Amino acid sequence: MVGRDSSRARSRTSITTAIPWIIYTSPEIAWVGKSEQQAKAAGIAVRTGQFPFSINGRALGINEPTGFVKIVADATTDQVLGVHIIHARASDLIQEGVTTMEFKGAAEDIARITHGHPDALRGHARSGAQRRQARAKYVAGGPRWPLR
Predict the structure, then answer these.
(1) How far is CA 7 from the centre of its chain?
(2) Which domains can be identified in the chain, with CATH numbers?
(3) Residue 107 near residue 127 (C-beta atoms within 8 A)
């Protein structure tokens, strides 16, 4: 799109941190943005949320319970810095992380999205919710709703 838009004399800003990387193995591995280690090495204080597919209804229903979703967010602003997924459908699931990062969204934004149930994307919501719960404890002295 960048090449096409520039050839038509349109301006377009490319955000290189919101480019998904996918390894087509079994299970697939996909990520966008920084890892926890990269963010810490850059001097960014981070918080993370992780959710295993082994307790996700959709993953169990399609007999693909292997893997997890991990969200890395700025500890101060809650802006999503990276999303990492290992799962049979990681190449499909990473798109929500790409969109969130493209629009400079927060982990709480992902947690607040209503996801279909059962759906594998609920792993994103649970990872974001774990971040939201940690933030709520810090900001308000307690979580808004408990996680199991």
Answers:
(1) 33
(2) 18-140 (3.30.390.30)
(3) yes
Secondary structure of residue 27 in the 3-state scheme: coil
Kindly report the length of the chain: 148
Is position 87 annotated as part of the catalytic site?
A: no
Angle subtended by helix axes 90-102 and 122-140, to nearest 10: 40
Amino acid 105 reads: G
pLDDT in the model for residue 113: 85
- Report pLDDT for 142: 41
Single-letter amino acid, residue 41: A
Per annotation, catalytic residue among 84, 115, 117, 124:
117
Q: Is the pLDDT of residue 62 over 80?
A: yes
